[in-house]
Amino acid sequence: MIERYIEQASTYAADIDNLITLIGVIVGFWFVLVELVFFGLIITFRRRPGVKAQYITGEEKHQKRWVGIPHELVLVCDIVIIIAAVRVWVNVKQTQPPAQETVRVIAQQWAWSFVHAGKDGKLDTADDVRTVDELHVKVGTTYHFKLESRDVLHSFSVPVFRIKQDAIPGRVITGWFKATKIGVHDIQCTEICGIGHALMPARIHIQSKGEYDTWVAAQSATASR
Amino acid sequence: MATPAQEHAHSHEEHAHGHGAGHDHGHHAQSFWSKYVFSVDHKVIGMQYMFTGLFMGIIGAFFSYVFRMQMAYPGHNVPGYGVVSPGEYNALITNHGTIMIFWLAMPVLVAAFGNFLIPLMLGCDDMVFPRLNRLSYQIFLLSALVLIASWFVPGGGFGGAWTAYPPLSAKSQYNMTPLGSTLWVIAVALEFVAFLIGGINFVTTAMNSRAPGMKLFDIPMVVWMIVIASILFMASVGPLIAGAAMLVFDQTVGTGFFDPVRGGDPILWQHLFWFFGHPEVYVVLLPAVGIVAEIITVFARKKLFAYKTVLYTAFGTGILSFFVWAHHQFIAGIDPRMANVFTATTVLISIPIAEMMFVFVATLYGGSIVLTTPMLWALAFIAEFIIGGVTGIYLGSSGSDIYFHDTYFVLAHFHYTFVPIAVIAVFAGITYWYPKMFGKMLNDTLGKIHFWGTVIPFNGIFIPLFLTGMGGDHRRIHNYNNFPELANERMYFLREFATVSLLVLLAFQLVFIINFFWSLKAGKKAGNNPWDANTLEWQAPSPPPHGNFAELPNCYRGPYEYSAPNRDKDYWPQNEPA
Question: Which of B214, B261, B280, B357 is deepest in the core (most CB within 10 A)?
Answer without folding.
Answer: B214
